[in-house]
Amino acid sequence: MNRRALLRATTALGAAGALAATAASPASATATAPGPTRPLRIHIAMFDGVEELDFAAPYEVLTAAGFFTPRPVEVDYVSATGARAVTAAYGTVVRGIRPWAPGEADLLVVPGGGYARRDSPGVWAEIDRGTLPHALAAAVRPGLTVSALCTGVMLLSAAGLTKGRPCTTHHKAKPDLQAQGGSLKNARVVDDGDLVTAAGVTSGLDLALWLVRRELGPDAAANLEEMLEYEARGTVWTSPRVG
Asked: 102 and 147 in contact (C-beta within 8 Å)?
């Protein structure tokens, strides 16, 4: 068993022990309402040229959240161009990607990548092709939170989802986001209710931890930070409509 598998198994056993202890105490059982049983369903949008850390960091954080909550958590990679393999920015090939199905998701996460290379696979190529921006625009519905990090936010902008909305992105793309109507906020994560955006590459960790805190509670987020040996960084700008 490798170190990560061992850590996860140990963490899961610890969480299971804590839940068992709670169940054994009648006082605790009556004081704590049972958690929801419907899974929290999360889809991460994939495309050729996507940055490895942009999709891998949220995937790991959000998947690992399932160790710290009684609510099931399901995380899937999806593609607007159907089930297929994707080649990421540094050559990583990701297989087992599911077809686009935002109607089955509670959270949609859009990573970035390739914004500085207009003639290569990545965000610019997806904007020029139009398939993913159109799919994102059509995905919006009550009950779905659309989130993005780094230059993935520019895909939301191309879909018309950030115009007039508080948002942020990678520092080099901020002028473009503002020129396209986004209301820029100087924060690492910006939560405007059904639209949540985050800054540059490593902010995918902070975006995912914030989504865990928001959807699954502060205990789940705090336990994840301990497991990951990473403390959430920077400011989370939160809209008055949130809460």
From this structure: no
Side-chain-facing half-sphere of 4: CA atoms under 13 Å: 4
How many angstroms separate the CA atoms of 76 and 241, rounded? 28
Of the candidates 129, 141, 128, which has an alpha carbon nearest to the alpha carbon of residue 195?
141
Dump pLDDT digits (tens) for 97-153.
999 999 999 999 999 999 988 889 999 999 999 999 999 999 999 999 999 999 999
Q: Are 99 and 83 in contact (CB under 8 A)?
A: yes
Residues near 69 by beta carbon (within 8 Å), at least 6 away in sequence: 35, 216, 217, 220
d(CA 135, CA 80) in angstroms, rounded, equals 7
User: CB neighbours (10 Å) of residue 101?
Assistant: 12
Residues 6+ apart with CB under 8 A from 65: 73, 212, 216, 220, 224
**In whole angstroms, what is the distance from residue 124 CA to residue 126 CA?**
5
Q: Residue 24 has which token pair?
A: 């054994």
Q: Cα separation of 63 and 83, whole Å?
A: 20
Non-local (6+) Cβ contacts of 185 within 8 A are 166, 167, 168, 237
Q: Taking the model in full, what pTM does it have?
A: 0.85
